[in-house]
Amino acid sequence: MDTTGTLQLGDPAYVAALTGVTTVGDFRTFDLACGGQGAPLLSFADEVLFGKRGEPCAVLNLGGIANLTVISEEGQAVMAFDTGPANVLIDEAMRKLYGQDFDQDGKVALSGTVDQIRLKSMLEQESYFKMPPPKTTGRELFSKARALALVEEWTNADLAPADIVATLTAFTAHSLVQNYVMHIKPHYRLRKLILGGGGAYNPVLLDMIKTNWGEPVDLLMHEDFGVSAKFKEALLFALLAYTTYFGVPNNVPVCTGAKRRVCLGKLVRSN
Question: 167, 89 in Cβ contact below 8 A?
Answer without folding.
Answer: no
